[in-house]
Structures are given as C-alpha cells and as structure tokens.
Here is the input.
Amino acid sequence: MKARVPQRYAPFIFSVIQAAVTTGIATAIATGQTTALGFLFVKHWLSSWGIAWVTMVPVVVAAAPLIHRSIAMLTGGPDHRDQR
Here is the structure.
C-alpha cells in the first residue's frame, strides 16, 4: 500500500490523533460525572471534546519536540524513540 501522506508529516499526524484520543477519554469521564448516559451525555460530550481537541492539538504539536528532548536528556539517549 502506497503512503498517502509524506513521512515528514508523521509527528503532526501523531499529535492530532494523540490529542483526539486523550481529550476524548478525558472529556467522556468528566461529562459522565455530571450527566447521565443518553442523548444529553452525547451532546455535552461532543461539545466538550470538540473544544478540548481544538485547544490541545496546537499544545501537543508544540510540546512534543520539547518532551522528546527532555526524555533524551533524562535517559542519555540521542532520541528516546530510538531506545528499545
């Protein structure tokens, strides 16, 4: 299967997906604490998730390189992703 997106965009795509999964779970938990399951839950969760995701994508994209460098410094490796 041929790649559809150039490899150079992999960190950005990872950040978008990671932010979606993380914010989706966190907002579902928070919404579930205040709303019974059902249509109202879905309505409130989707609204909260959308706001959280749009907010977190730029944060994750900006923070990822910093986190990678910090981990490399803490572990003594050139890049923690290369350490197995």
In short: The CA atoms of residues 4 and 10 lie 11 Å apart. The chain has two helices and no strands. The chain has a mean pLDDT of 86. The first helix runs from residue 10 to 34.
